[in-house]
Amino acid sequence: MSDFPTKTSQWVIDSCTGTSGLQLQHDIPLPSIGQHDVLVKIHAASLNARDIQILANKYMWGVTTPVVPLTDCAGQVLSIGSSVTRFKAGDRCASTFHSKWISGNMKSLAQVSQVGAHTDGVLRHYAVFNEEELVKIPSHLSYEEASTLPCAAVTAWNALFGGSTPCKPGDVVLTQGSGGVSLFANQFARAAGAKVIATTGELGGEREAVLEELGATTVLSYRDSDWGIKAKEATGGRGVDIVVEVSGAGEQSAKAIRLGAQIIVIGGSSGSGPSMFDMRSTMGEVRRITVGSRDMFEDMNRAIDVNGIKPVLDPKIWGFNEVKKAYEYAETGNHKGKVVIRIVEGST
Ligand SMILES: NC(=O)c1ccc[n+]([C@@H]2O[C@H](COP(=O)([O-])OP(=O)(O)OC[C@H]3O[C@@H](n4cnc5c(N)ncnc54)[C@H](OP(=O)(O)O)[C@@H]3O)[C@@H](O)[C@H]2O)c1
């Protein structure tokens, strides 16, 4: 008779109709642990813009309901299958976003598959994963901090270091807004010896202060119709080397860059990124990305470890029974840092 749990509580999205489509379920049987599987006690999970889009039925990659939501979690390995080599009981780990994308470039659409959208996700107390779908987490991070890494941080890492011309010391990186991806991009760029110019919608407030604390030397308002030109002026007229483009404000980004720079297109809340017309006089490169591979996640974790980087969390941490409120809060856009759900009470 095993001492390990055989059932879990979990949240499920029944229908993508806002928080009314979220249901809490109890005593759901866990699958048996196969040869290559790992049983994980999930301590914390975090929300991404993607999760809000899923619940509103606006997610570009689609959703297969019913599904346990969320891709991002951190927890502890309780037991392992007989052939597992990557983990042992007691290891602290995090989930991966594209669980079938291990290394190199994405080679098939099957690798786009995401837990929490196409297969069951991590908003539950226990889950069984294939060992290939997890990474170990940096020892200086709490579970809550580490739960914010799989989507936003890996995306920022891929943007800066996953292409053919990685960010290097002395580069100028432009980030947009103070959301999850942008704050991580700010931290990674600074750790790589780059300078950061940031934008936000709220100058003079807490968001600007956070960006400056992380090392941004200039913070501009993206509500200013000329912010692209002002970003270029802040480089002494040379232009920025890399834009981490989360907003889709391509016309402005193209005005900010130096000749031959890169714009990494990630999100599109206010546009779809630079057009060829925007880019015509820049000789620049546009790269569209989707999060990153497991190898990128592991490379990033080494950098987080060596540089002592700590994710920025919103001060309010939500409980497992407050999931609907956490979603509603994230949807308002009032969060300052990552929105985290504590799954094990008393665990950080
Ligand atoms: N392609 C991918 O792999 C990938 C991965 C992750 C995320 N994304 C996408 O990237 C975007 C950001 O994700 P996130 O997780 O960082 O979101 P988030 O944490 O919810 O933050 C969104 C931020 O966007 C900023 N913002 C709003 N309107 C803006 C505008 N017009 N111009 C510039 N910034 C604006 C706001 O910054 P202020 O509060 O400072 O004003 C806000 O904090 C979303 O669209 C998401 O879907 C894509």
TrEMBL record:
It comes from the Eukaryota. Residues 18-341 form the Enoyl reductase (ER) domain. InterPro entries: ADH-like_C, ADH-like_N, ER, GroES-like_sf, NAD(P)-bd_dom_sf, Zinc_ADH-like. GO terms for molecular function: oxidoreductase activity. This is GroES-like protein.
